[in-house]
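Why does residue order matter? Because the sequence determines the fold. Keep that principle in mind as you read this record.
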Amino acid sequence: MVALPGVDPAWSTYSDVPSTSAADNPGTVNSWHYLDNGPQLSEAGTAVRGTLLCVHGNPTWSYLWRTLLARGVSEGWRVVAVDQLDMGFSRRTRTFRRLADRVTDLEDFTAALSLKGPLVTVGHDWGGVVSLGYAHRNRSNLAGVILTNTAIHQEPTQPIPSLLRLALLPGVHRLGTQTTSAFLDVTHALARPKLPRDVHAAFRAPYRTRADRAGIANFVSDIPAEPSHPSYATLTDIAEGIRTLDVPSLMVWGPRDPIFTDTYLEDLTRRLPSADVHRFEDAGHLLQEDADVAGTIFSWLDERFPATSREATASAPPPAAPSHTFLWHQLQERSAGAEQDSLAVAEMGRNGIRRSLSWRELADDVDAVAAGLARLGVGAGSRVSLMVPPGVDLTVLIYACLRIGAVIVVADAGLGTKGLSRAVKGSVPDVVIGIERALLAARLFGWPGRRISVGTLSAGKRALRVESSLETLRTTPPESFGNPDPDADAAILFTSGSTGPAKGVVYTHRQLSGMRDTVGGTFGLGPGGALVAGFAPFALLGPALGAASVTPDMEVTAPRTLTARALADAARAIDATSVFAAPAALRNLVATKGGLTPSGAEALGRVTTVLSAGAPVPALLLEQVQELLPAASLHTPYGMTEALPVSNIDLEGIRAAEADAAGTMPGAGNGVCVGHAVQGARLAVSALSDDGVPNGTPTTEPGITGEILVDAPHVKSRYHRLWRTEGISSRTAPWHRTGDVGHFDGAGRLWVEGRLGHIITTPGAVLTPVGLEQALEKLEGVRLAAVVGVGPTGTQAIVAVVEPDPAPGRNRRRGRKPVLADSVLTERARNMARTAGIELAAVLTVPGLPVDIRHNAKIDRSEVAKRAGAVLAGSGSRIP
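Structure:
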């Protein structure tokens, strides 16, 4: 055995195993190689909690599971990772072994080793199929099933993945899989990032010669690509048999796998619907090399099979579910009442209202579209990706989908092409309903799901694979539908992606109704109101609140496109009392106020409530907005996709908080004040340790900085297929851990200081960035500031990166590398920091700080830190 990085030589074991496989002659004994940490556990006297039986695929071997073996020693789990026959360092049998033979081989191996339960099978690639075949046929000692990037069913009407099709071509197959190492090399090249040289050599070690690679070639030949294949019946038997498995299951997935895509994950989740799923967004086929698969697996094992028994204790019965009315309750009420012919929804064009529906028309439209979707087979649990701009059509589609129990999937176009495609593919929709641009993207990027068009298509329906249209659905005779389960999934809403890959946040019908009740109760919005929806997350709450709503003439996913005149036109069209707008929209309102007409100013003067959410809003900006909307109460609720809103503060409250921060109020300052908890919500913080870890008991004591926690009826149900992420966010039940950092002041107000990932850990101190950033932004000539840590955790240097006010007539520029600031700005910034007891290691300037696309406000501090680190390391730094 060659030296293998990450493998204890003591794990390497050989055993002679009698074969009962039809591929072998009677009496055949095969030599199996496997890695086994059992002897280490025995030597240490560690009690064994169970056994993980790990099965590799093609063309890997047991080396793939080395991190599980190492972790298993400390966790008390025996890990046995086999080399399948003809693979790894097991015997080359010189026989063609089909899927059925490999399942029998695994049964022979476990019998020879007398592996007892509790036994958890772990599989990857075609080893996933083999391990499931074993699990299906050996349930008596089976405790659980773990799968990583594999497939159990191939739809006969769909082609197998292109790389496998290529490997099966008659002129390529033997040459690519056995004569040369091409198939082996291509598989290794799928690792993200590239495999280290010694690890790459270890994966290649058992396959150096043409004879060594015979098993690789035969494994590829045994892919059941169509029903006529000899192994197709075995695969089908396993695929159908696992539907009755009743053991805990975990699927860990790398969605950047060009072979086993999310389509196969979707199929597996339908066969094992109770399985836990975690997708590592940046991982691919060799996800064991790309991500912390071992940590995820053992965290799951700890939850499902705790090391110590949990004693049963008497407890009170769970509280009764709160009273609940579905999101469409007000729509039904108003469509049948005296207001049925009054305006319900509208959207603006350049010359006034472009489209509108009364309450009765809206209800009729929703009923017809719901019936049309149902007749296409869309119903309870179907996932429907809505790629439609906010407005009348999107309003109708959302309420129609919810009415029939379908799960709406909403991902903001502001995620960008790559982020949007990742979100849609990850949700694996059954149906994509979209405008032509979205359907073109669906065709180009291979998004799953049937296609329904909205609006007129210039491209052909056949080219876009469109099978129906919204207009066709609208002509369907209405049907009666029963209400869905209030606790069934209702929506998957994707986060902005400003703190990493966008996450799908799952809401039930009850939680969506809780959001409606919180917004209505906190801000006094309800039947008879009229709102301008200039912020996408709030653009569809109007019908739920019983308020007329209008979408202004703007690109709702680009808040900075809202002008003062467009807002005034929308407000005048419905005599609006409320406005929802993003912070970037507020800035543009102020910048474009010169375009207001007298009638427009009068319409804005009748608005009584303004809400701006998504990012902090400076008091100065609110004061400027107040001049445009003099009668309005200006609110800046704090929240996130997982719970919107969480707290609320108005302009007067901000002024009071700032006054307290300048005085002696305990805990005031060093962040953005976001006020008190909204109706029905509770807030707390989990104090940070000296190394920046939030592990304190939830508290509301003033002046303690920690991770912000929230508990409310409208907090998400879970993250979509992010088991590990969900576990982290909900580990302090009943609290949702937001990932934001803040503290309370003496008046019980919450102050936000930044994100957990942006904490700076200097020697002996933990620093949050927002307070210092606010101070730096008060310096003359500074538009925005970001404070970041550069260097290893615990020894980070504090660096300020500032964006100067742009020169007259010049727009912000982004993407440029930071440079060292001039001596004057550097000294002013350092003096400002010293007043807070902070020593800046460097001050840099950049033409435009990177901000998220959705809000045009949240600074990407991680990217700033990366660029600043490069400058301090001598890459591209200069004094302007």
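The radius of gyration is 30 Å.
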